[in-house]
């Protein structure tokens, strides 16, 4: 269940990251400013995440897991023992998934932190238990169209081998007409103007 929870969290992180990096514009109402912009800014200043406190880094991911964890607590409190046994394995998987979803942005932050990490975190990175620094650097090469999974990064290589992201992009483009990363050039021009002044 542990490995399945990690793999699911890694895939989910990749899909969210890919979606935010690839589609839409930072000028879109609400979503652009609140969701897409932080992803695009992260490409320009990758170490900005290291200046965020724990809540700013992890709050959104923790919030996503809370409703299901409350529901899980309700089941374990009020359901009878027979029903709990029937769902127990699934709930263990969901609990582990919630832990790794909650910690994804922290693992990502540590992959951009080059000084002052506790030795056990560096050990986990070196042995690819969590997202390693060198591994994640591959995503930060323009045009940022690869290695999207940021929980552990375990799925990055297999997904690249099967050309998962280009395949997904071709499907979205075929049915919507939207071009992947079409906002990147406009976004780069805006940020260059800001940095020129």
UniProtKB/TrEMBL annotation:
The keyword Methyltransferase does not apply. GO terms for molecular function: oxidoreductase activity. It is found in: Membrane. GO terms for cellular component: membrane. One of its GO terms (biological process) is fatty acid metabolic process. The chain crosses the membrane at residues 87-107, 113-131. Belongs to the fatty acid desaturase CarF family. This is Lipid desaturase domain-containing protein.
């Amino acid at each position: 269940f542990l490995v399945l929870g990690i793999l699911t969290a890694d895939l989910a992180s990749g899909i969210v990251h890919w979606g935010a990096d690839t589609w839409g514009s930072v000028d879109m109402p609400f979503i652009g400013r609140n969701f897409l912009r932080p992803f695009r800014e992260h490409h320009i200043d990758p170490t900005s995440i290291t200046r965020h406190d724990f809540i700013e880094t992890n709050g959104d991911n923790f919030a996503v897991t809370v409703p299901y964890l409350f529901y899980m607590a309700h089941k374990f409190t009020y359901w009878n023992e027979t029903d709990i046994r029937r769902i127990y394995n699934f709930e263990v998987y969901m609990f582990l998934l919630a832990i790794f979803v909650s910690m994804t942005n922290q693992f990502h932050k540590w992959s951009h932190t080059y000084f002052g990490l506790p030795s056990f975190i560096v050990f986990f990175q070196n042995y690819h238990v969590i997202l390693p620094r060198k591994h994640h650097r591959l995503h930060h090469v323009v045009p940022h169209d690869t290695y999207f999974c940021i929980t552990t990064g375990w799925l990055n290589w297999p997904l690249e081998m099967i050309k998962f992201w280009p395949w997904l992009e071709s499907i979205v483009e075929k049915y919507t007409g939207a071009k992947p990363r079409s906002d990147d050039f406009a976004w780069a021009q805006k940020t260059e103007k800001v940095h020129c002044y």
